């Protein structure tokens, strides 16, 4: 029995989706441990300065700017599940090198840069393959539900990961704590191996009708042409274009907060490294609330309307982040971060589901890659800006610049076709009509 036969609740009984979901849940928790531990290794163990921490954050995200566009076309030429599997195994080795080097006293800032850059490349290919792979498992009517579950899990990981990471950092140290992230990729790889549904070019169990048909390699156009086609589709589709402009702008400023957050909490607010994860976990609770409330708010307000409301109104408490002070007022950082994770989850699930549902299947991986290039290509630029501004203006003034910019990013959605709609359209042509 297919999941479509019994409707939306069947995702809880959809074996292959549950394998993908559970593997990603473990992997996301592990990744959040590294999000906490990697800058703490630099700040606490290697005594890195503000600019060096900014460069490290830029290295973590540099591949989104450098390789996202070709990644989409390359992923389409290979099985998406196979690409995801190899990326998991590669990240197991790369991330695992940090605790190994720390154990023998050979860890350097140069290795952290190399690890950050390499894991960034593999994360790009995985993140491009992932949304293009989901329609292989789910039919169109299930995509919103599936993305909602995956998005909520990511937000839960942003709570559990820093909390678990804080405990591991406190007991074992930041470098050793990254072992948990390395092992999480092994769990994710095991889940992918256990999935029975095959893509068209793997041919065993027929995929849903929403999955793209295979194209022989010798019938494909040149790589550069494929890249142009994906980017061109994204740029001419008004809702997708405004969505990536919002996300790219928001990410430029959000990464400034993420890059300087540990420096601000440890050196300005004098928070112990073990408690940094707790503050980040409290802030990430907003994403869980957003994921749980997204269905209700979409029904009450409209899926399109709630997206721009989230990023123009609900995100305004983010201005509390740089207002935090030592003591109880550290909670202002968590409250501001909570509003941003809540708003981004509400908006992101709807925009991703719209892209998956309306984009032609043979273009989906390339359009997703083009979106990543714009969405996340701004991350290394924002991280470098954070390092430069933080070392010249100071950490707190730089955070003020970041939160004002981040809270203004929703204007891209406000001045878009979404403002005149209640719900997302069912086809791309309806959006541009």
What does this protein structure show overall?
The chain has a single domain (11-212, 223-432), classed as Growth Hormone, Chain: A, CATH 1.20.1250. The chain is mainly α and 433 residues long. The chain has helices spanning 15-45, 50-66, 68-76, 80-103, 109-137, 143-172, 174-177, 179-194, 223-236, 238-268, 273-301, 303-314, 331-358, 364-375, 378-392, 395-408, 411-414, 428-432. It is built from 18 helices and no strands. The longest helix is centred in the N-terminal third of the chain and has 31 residues, at 15-45.
CATH topology: Growth Hormone, Chain: A
State the domain count: 1
Number of helical elements? 18
CA-CA gap between termini: 38 Å
Whole-angstrom Rg: 21 Å
The appropriate CATH architecture is Up-down Bundle
* Uncertain stretches: 1-9, 429-433
DSSP strand (E) fraction? Answer: under 5%
Multimer state: single chain
Structural class: mainly alpha
SSE string: HHHHHHHHHHHHHHHHHH
Mean pLDDT: 82
What order do the helices and strands come in, and which of them pair?
Layout: H1 15-45, H2 50-66, H3 68-76, H4 80-103, H5 109-137, H6 143-172, H7 174-177, H8 179-194, H9 223-236, H10 238-268, H11 273-301, H12 303-314, H13 331-358, H14 364-375, H15 378-392, H16 395-408, H17 411-414, H18 428-432
State the main characteristics.
75% helix, mainly alpha, single chain, globular, Growth Hormone, Chain: A, disordered N terminus, 433 residues
Provide a quick synopsis of the model.
The protein is built from 18 helices and no strands.
């Amino acid at each position: 029995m297919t999941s479509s036969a019994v409707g939306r609740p069947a995702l809880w009984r959809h074996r292959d989706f549950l394998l993908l979901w559970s593997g990603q849940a473990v992997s996301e928790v592990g990744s959040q441990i590294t999000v906490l531990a990697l800058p703490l290794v630099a700040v606490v163990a290697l005594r890195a300065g503000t600019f060096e921490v900014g460069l490290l954050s830029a290295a973590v995200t540099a591949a989104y700017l450098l390789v996202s566009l070709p990644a989409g076309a390359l992923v389409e030429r290979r099985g998406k599940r196979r690409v995801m599997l190899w990326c998991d195994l590669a990240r197991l080795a790369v991330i695992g090198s940090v605790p190994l080097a720390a154990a023998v006293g050979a860890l350097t800032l140069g290795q952290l840069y190399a690890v950050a850059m390499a894991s960034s490349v593999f994360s790009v290919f995985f993140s491009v393959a992932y949304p293009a792979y989901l329609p292989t498992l789910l039919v169109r009517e299930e995509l919103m539900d599936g993305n909602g579950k995956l998005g909520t899990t990511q937000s839960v990981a942003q709570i559990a990961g820093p909390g678990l990471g804080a405990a591991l950092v406190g007991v074992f140290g930041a470098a050793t704590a990254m072992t948990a992230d390395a092992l999480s990729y092994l769990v994710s790889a095991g889940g992918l191996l256990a999935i029975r549904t095959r893509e068209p070019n793997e041919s065993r169990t027929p995929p849903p009708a929403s999955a793209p048909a295979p194209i022989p390699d010798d019938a494909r156009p040149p790589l550069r042409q494929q890249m142009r086609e994906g980017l061109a589709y994204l740029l001419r589709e008004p809702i997708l274009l405004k969505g990536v402009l919002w996300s790219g702008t928001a990410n430029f400023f959000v990464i400034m907060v993420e890059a300087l957050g540990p420096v601000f909490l440890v050196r300005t607010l004098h928070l112990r490294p073990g408690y940094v994860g707790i503050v980040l976990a409290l802030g990430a609770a907003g994403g869980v609330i957003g994921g749980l409330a997204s269905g209700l708010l979409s029904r009450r307000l409209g899926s399109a309307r709630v997206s721009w409301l989230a990023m123009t109104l609900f995100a305004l408490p983010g201005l509390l982040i740089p207002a935090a002070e030592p003591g109880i007022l550290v909670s202002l950082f968590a409250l501001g971060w909570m509003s941003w994770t809540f708003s981004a989850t509400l908006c992101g699930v709807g925009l991703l589901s719209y892209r998956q549902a309306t984009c032609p299947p043979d273009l989906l991986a390339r359009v997703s890659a083009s979106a990543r290039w714009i969405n996340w290509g701004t991350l290394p630029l924002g991280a470098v800006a954070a390092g430069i501004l933080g070392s010249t203006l100071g950490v707190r003034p730089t955070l003020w610049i970041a939160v004002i910019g981040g809270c203004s990013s929703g204007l891209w959605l406000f001045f878009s076709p979404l403002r005149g709609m209640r719900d997302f359209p069912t086809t791309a042509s309806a959006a541009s009509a």
